[in-house]
Structure prediction request, 89 residues.
Amino acid sequence: MTEKSVQVGRLVCSVQGRDSGRFYLIVGIENQTGVWVADGEGRKVEKPKKKNVKHLKFYDIMAPAVVEKVSRGRKITNEDVRNELKSIV
Prediction:
């Protein structure tokens, strides 16, 4: 996994664990092997799930609204994440 591919706002799909097959957006980066993911419904932005990058499938799709908010230093909301996932998936 390259450093460039692990970015806040990137679409990922869980391939390991009980949430296997679910789509998430990366909402935070813990370290090189761990990221925080949320889907805005079952997994809220306030309490994201920590996932190992080895247990995720990365897509070349970014959520523009989330990326823009992060670049401006504003908070990501559950509604932002839900709307982006709905339009992407």
Summary: Strands lie at 10-14, 23-29, 34-38, 49-52, 56-62. Helices lie at 64-71, 78-88. The chain has two helices and five strands.
